[in-house]
């Protein structure tokens, strides 16, 4: 099934619209719309945008999550049953006026994937050496976590130099950092020093000392007591530009 078709079906279902109603709004046949949602017909991105906008997609939605972001990152097929159940009216009690507006007015909460994907996608900030945000990456959230950590605590750090070039981390590469206040043996870690934040590979020497390793033109290391070190986090992922 097409991810863009899923998006269209989710928005249509959320608003309680039939295929014929949506088709009339955007000037296509209801048969074409059904084929797009079911998957046999491939739809272009601009055509999908036109159909979604006809159902009330806002510019705010596009600014937060582009269709390309969603198609590249999220398995919408697995989300369809959950999202469909989430917007089904409750049968046990009649919803009050406020509840009716929240479900039926597409302008209140934005488009369906913004509401739903806030729990499965995260804009993770990218920081440079002085911890200024210079961009972001869109990452999926799994079981409420990103790489086992709270989504609000992870970030990308841009390598400021070639101190770890021998360990395949070069200036300008991005490393994903998760919180860690203790030395992790064999890991590349981000440390706070009087000169700023630096990346070093860590080798535990004993219970109170660690070896900080760097490798540019030549391998270098220094041994520090743990009480002299401030660990910010452990690097768990590397993104490098191959161009």
Q: How would you portray this structure in words?
A:
The longest helix has 13 residues, at 3-15. The chain is built from 10 helices and 9 strands. Mean pLDDT is 78; it is low at 59-63 and 73-112. The chain has helices at 3-15, 19-26, 30-38, 45-54, 59-64, 67-73, 76-87, 97-104, 106-109, 112-117; strands spanning 121-127, 133-140, 155-158, 174-179, 188-193, 196-204, 209-215, 219-225, 230-239. The chain is elongated and about 70 Å long. It is α+β, with helices and mostly antiparallel strands and 243 residues long. The chain folds into 2 domains: 3-117, no CATH class; 122-239, Ribbon (Umud Fragment, subunit A), CATH 2.10.109. Strands 2-1-3-4-9-5-6-7-8 form a 9-stranded mixed beta sheet, with no helix packed on it.
Question: Would you spell out the secondary-structure blueprint of this structure?
Answer:
Elements: H1 3-15, H2 19-26, H3 30-38, H4 45-54, H5 59-64, H6 67-73, H7 76-87, H8 97-104, H9 106-109, H10 112-117, E1 121-127, E2 133-140, E3 155-158, E4 174-179, E5 188-193, E6 196-204, E7 209-215, E8 219-225, E9 230-239
Parallel strand pairs: 1-3
Antiparallel strand pairs: 1-2, 3-4, 4-9, 5-6, 5-9, 6-7, 7-8
Tags for this entry?
Umud Fragment, subunit A, alpha+beta, 2 domains, 9 strands, 243 residues
The CATH topology of the largest domain turns out to be: Umud Fragment, subunit A
Structural class computed from helices and strand pairing: alpha+beta
Distance between the termini: 33 Å
CATH architect. name of the largest domain: Ribbon
CATH class of the largest domain: Mainly Beta
Shape: elongated
- Fraction of residues in H or I helices: 25-40%
What is the percentage of strand-forming residues? 25-35%
Count of individual domains? 2
Write down the Rg: 24 Å
| Sheet with most strands: strand arrangement | 2-1-3-4-9-5-6-7-8
Largest sheet: 9 strands, mixed
Unreliable spans are 59-63, 73-112
- Average pLDDT score: 78
């Amino acid at each position: 099934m097409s991810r863009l078709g899923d998006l269209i079906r989710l928005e249509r279902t959320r608003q309680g619209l039939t295929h014929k109603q949506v088709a009339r709004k955007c000037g296509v046949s209801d048969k074409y719309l059904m084929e797009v949602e079911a998957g046999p017909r491939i739809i272009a991105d601009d055509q999908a945008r036109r159909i979604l906008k006809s159902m009330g997609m806002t510019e705010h939605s596009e600014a937060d999550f582009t269709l390309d972001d969603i198609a590249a990152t999220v398995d919408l097929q697995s989300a369809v049953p959950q999202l469909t159940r989430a917007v089904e009216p409750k049968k046990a009690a009649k919803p009050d006026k406020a509840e009716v507006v929240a479900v039926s007015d597409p302008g209140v909460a934005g488009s369906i994937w913004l509401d739903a994907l806030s729990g499965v996608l995260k804009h993770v900030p990218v920081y440079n050496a002085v911890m200024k945000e210079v961009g972001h990456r869109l990452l999926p959230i799994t079981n409420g976590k990103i790489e086992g950590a709270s989504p609000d605590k992870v970030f990308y750090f841009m390598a400021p130099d070639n101190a770890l070039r021998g360990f395949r981390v070069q200036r300008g590469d991005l490393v994903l950092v998760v919180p860690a206040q203790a030395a992790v043996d064999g890991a590349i870690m981000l440390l706070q020093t009087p000169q700023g934040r630096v990346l070093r590979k860590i080798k535990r020497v004993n219970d109170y000392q660690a070896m900080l390793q760097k490798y540019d033109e030549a391998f270098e290391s220094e041994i520090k007591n743990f009480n002299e070190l401030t660990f910010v986090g452990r690097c768990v992922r590397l993104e490098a530009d191959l161009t």
